[in-house]
Amino acid sequence: MKKFLIVIAVCAFVGTVSVRAEETWKGTISESMCGLKHSAEKHGGKGDDHRACVEKCIAGGGEYVFIAKDKAVKIANQSFEGLKAHAGHEVMLTGEMKDGAVTISKIEMPKKEEKK
Q1: Labelling 67: which of 11, 30, 108, 113 has CA 20 to 30 A away?
Q2: CA–CA separation, 58 vs 66, rounded Å?
C-alpha cells in the first residue's frame, strides 16, 4: 500500500510539473527575415503592412518567429496550423519554451477590452 501511495504522489507531481511548463504570452507572429523591422524598400513600398511582409518573407524562405517584448523567439513547430492564419497579427500564444524556441500548442486573438 505504501508503494502505491508513493507512485500516486510521484505521478501527481510529474503531472503538475508538465502543466506548468506551458505558458501564454502576448505578441506578434512575424518572420525571421525581417524580424522586428519591416523595410518598405524590401517590400515594394509596403513595409508598414506587417501581414503582407510576413507572407512575402515566408514565401521567400523565411521562418515564422514570435515577437514579444522586442525580442524575436524561434518557433519550433513551423507547421503549426494557426501560423499562416495569424501571420502579422497580435496574438495570445500558448506553448512551451525550450532551448530558446517555443513549441506552440494554441494561438488565439487577444480578447477585446470592454470600454466603460
Answers
A1: 113
A2: 13
Helix (H, G, I), strand (E, B) or coil at 17: helix
- For 3-19, what is each residue's pLDDT tens digit? 655 767 666 666 555 45
To which residue does cell 500516486 refer?
8
Interior angle at CA 14, CA 12 and CA 16, nearest 5: 70
Q: pTM score, two decimals? A: 0.72
Quickly count: other Cβ atoms within 10 Å of residue 47's Cβ: 16
* Distance between first and last Cα of the chain: 58
Q: Are 33 and 64 in contact (CB under 8 A)?
A: no
pLDDT tens column, 53-93: 899 999 999 999 999 998 999 999 999 999 999 999 999 99
Which of these, 66, 73, 72, lies nearest to 89 by C-alpha position? Answer: 66
